[in-house]
Amino acid sequence: MLFKSAIDKVDDFCRTRVPQADADFLRELDAQANAERSHIGLAVRRAVAKAGQVDPRYIRADDRESVELAILPLWDSMDWVRLVMNIEDELGISIPTHEAMTIRVRDFSVRSCVEDVSAIVRRLRDKSTT
Question: Do the Cβ atoms of 64 and 56 come closer than 8 Å?
Fold first, then answer.
């Protein structure tokens, strides 16, 4: 088969993995003791999963765009604007364009996205309190 359907891509991705509970994901992310980082971590996990049309339980903290995530639908031609919109929806915030551009797309991983989004949330919070 030359072209795989989205369903086949998701099946291939999930076949090689065991679902991971949120608590284990947060432990892997080293975020279980920090409520804000936990919230952001799970939101990013859901946003990445939504972009790849897969159950979030199959997304790991160290999954990378160019390796593990590349198997999933849409990640082979990732629409980064859509990912940011998914993150905004999950967190219930609006991320200004200049802030969204600070999310690493080169060497993207779920972990780096959580770090970048956490920094954005801190800057937005600090800006709103001044």
Answer: no
Whether the model clears a pTM of 0.70, i.e. scores above it, the answer is yes
112 C-beta neighbours (distance < 10 Å), count: 19
What is the SS3 string spanning 52-85?
A: HCCCHHHCCCCCECCCCHHHCCCHHHCCHHHHHH
Tell me the C-alpha distance between 100 and 94, whole Å: 10
Residue 79 has pLDDT above 80, yes or no: no
Q: 95-104 — which CB contacts under 8 Å span 24+ positions?
A: 95/120, 95/124, 99/123, 99/124
Q: 72 with 52: CB under 8 angstroms?
A: yes
29, 35, 55 from 104: Cα distances, Å? 17, 23, 23
Q: Alpha carbon of 22 to those of 82, 97, 127: distances in Å?
A: 23, 29, 30
Instruction: Give tens-digit pLDDT for 22-65.
Output: 999 999 999 988 999 999 999 999 999 999 999 999 999 999 98
